[in-house]
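Input record, target 12 of the design panel.
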C-alpha cells in the first residue's frame, strides 16, 4: 500500500485554486488566513533560503489541470530566483499548444505572491529547453505509476 502524506490545509488550498482556475479567473487575490500564512507583507527580515523553501512548497500546491501532479514535481519549474523578497520564476508547459498557456503563469504568480515574506512575483513562460517526461521527479513518476 502506498503511503501518502496528507495535509488538509494544502489540499483545501489546492482545491480552491483549481476551482478558481477552472472558472478561468485564477486564484482569488484576497488571501484566506486559513489557507496562507501571508495575509500582509511585513518588514521582518527573511532568510532567502527559507523564502525559497516556502516558494517551492507553494509551487507544489499548483497542479497541472490535465495531469494529477503538481507543477514542481512535474518538472515545469525551471528556475526560482529571489532578490529583495521579489521572486522570479521561469517555467514551461508540457506543450506549446497547452490550452491553459494564457492563464496558467498568472495562476502560478498569484500562488507565489501569497507566500509569507514575498513582496511580489513574476512568472516567465519559457520554451527552451522543451519539457520532456524525463523532467518528472521520481516521486511523481511513482505517483503516476511510471516506475
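The sequence produced for target 12 reads:
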Amino acid at each position: 500500500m502506498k503511503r501518502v502524506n496528507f495535509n488538509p490545509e494544502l489540499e483545501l488550498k489546492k482545491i480552491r485554486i483549481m476551482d478558481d482556475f477552472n472558472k478561468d479567473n485564477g486564484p482569488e487575490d484576497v488571501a484566506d488566513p486559513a489557507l496562507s500564512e501571508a495575509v500582509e507583507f511585513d518588514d521582518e527580515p527573511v532568510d532567502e533560503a527559507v523564502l525559497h523553501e516556502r516558494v517551492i512548497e507553494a509551487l507544489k500546491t499548483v497542479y497541472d489541470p490535465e495531469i494529477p501532479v503538481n507543477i514542481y514535481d512535474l518538472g515545469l519549474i525551471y528556475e526560482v530566483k529571489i532578490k529583495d523578497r521579489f521572486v522570479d520564476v521561469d517555467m514551461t508547459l508540457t506543450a506549446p499548444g497547452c490550452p491553459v498557456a494564457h492563464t496558467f503563469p498568472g495562476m502560478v504568480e498569484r500562488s507565489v505572491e501569497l507566500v509569507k515574506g514575498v513582496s511580489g512575483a513574476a512568472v516567465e513562460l519559457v520554451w527552451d529547453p522543451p519539457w520532456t517526461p524525463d523532467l518528472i521527479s521520481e516521486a511523481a513518476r511513482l505517483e503516476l505509476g511510471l516506475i
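The domain at 8-27+38-144 is CATH 3.30.300.130 (GMP Synthetase; Chain A, domain 3).
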